[in-house]
Amino acid sequence: MAGRVGYVRCGICGNEEGTVDEKPTGTLSIGCHKCGFSGYAKAGTRAKRLILAGMRPDEDAKPEPSTK
Fold it and tell me: Is the pTM of this model over 0.85?
């Protein structure tokens, strides 16, 4: 099951809300709901580093602060 980690600008249509999901294997899956573009970047690749560098994190995906 993939987990949403953030958002990127779509390289095809420019939509600001392209989604970035990360699979348990570390592969990123990117998709645009406006134009239908989809792609992926495997763990350990330059493509993954570039996507993460340009990504706006999903605020809801951040872990809750520890209360300890």
Answer: no
